[in-house]
Amino acid sequence: MEHQPLIRPVDVVVARKPRTFSPTARAWLFLTPSMLFMAVLIAASLLVLRMSVGTKGAEWTGFSLDSYAQLLEPYYLKSLLLTLRLALISAVIAVILAIPVGYTMSRLQSPFIRRLFLAAVLLPLLVNLLLQSYGWLVILGPGGMLNQALKGMGLITRPIMMLYNQNGVLMGLVQTAFPLAVLPIASAMRGVSRSYEEAAATLGASRFQVFRQVVLPMSLPGIITGATLVFAYNASSFVVPLLLGGRRVPMLAVMVHDQIAPLMNWPAASAAGVVLIVTTLAIMTLSEYITGRRRRMLEASQ
Predict the structure, then answer these.
(1) For residue 167, which of 224, 67, 90 has the smallest C-alpha distance?
(2) pLDDT, tens digit (0-9, with 9 covering 90-100), for 165-214
(3) How many beta carbons lie within 10 A of that of residue 148, not counting itself?
(4) How large is the greatest C-alpha to C-alpha distance in the chain, in angstroms?
(5) Of 260, 94, 78, whose CA–CA distance to 182 is shortest?
(6) Alpha-carbon torsion (40, 46, 52, 57), positive or negative
(7) Closest among 146, 185, 149, 151 to 168, alpha carbons compared
(8) Prediction pTM value
């Protein structure tokens, strides 16, 4: 008599792996929102480029290079050179002022004090640019706080005109773009190992020598990045030169506004914008090349 087995074999069920996306597909899905945003910016830039070669009243159907030829006139060339000069000077001043602040932030031990420094540095980015410009009007005006303080100390007898000239615009540009210089410089200096400073101090270098010969050269990529950000930001600045400089400091962004608002000359405004963008991108490309070369030299020396 045959006995049936007490334990019956159980059908083995092969578990199927859930269908997942490949790493490449996940990466593309992750980048989709940013790519859509960039696509909108690229499309807007192409529309501006198309309008720049149009004619007034026929921006989408006409074709002419008169708007670019107009930029070769002395007034527009002077405006372009003034824009680049003020942006470059403001970048240099902002970097000089940002280096000690960035070094201090990179060497702070207390997290609370570091957050206070960061909040103070980021404050100009949190306040509306229009409010900051009006604040400069209150400070620099003929009856403003600065003139009143100088009068009270007996240093001047009549108010100094600090508005509607390049000096007032320069102060506004430096103040509004200052955080853009501090953050990359502080990040670069935080990446400099303290062992290098200790080694230099052991060899007899003073604190200033350590800072000048060790910290600054190794932080040069961050310094160049900060200067580039300030330059690009201020080259396209509109509110500060309009309010603090009026029509006496005709930076290129103010000229673009004047071409659109009263004249409705979209091709001329677009051509000026294209020239400003191309010039800024060329300078940023040169800066990136210098930064990359310097970074490779530092990596090779280490």
Answers:
(1) 90
(2) 888 899 999 999 999 999 999 998 888 888 888 888 888 888 888 888 88
(3) 14
(4) 128
(5) 94
(6) negative
(7) 146
(8) 0.81
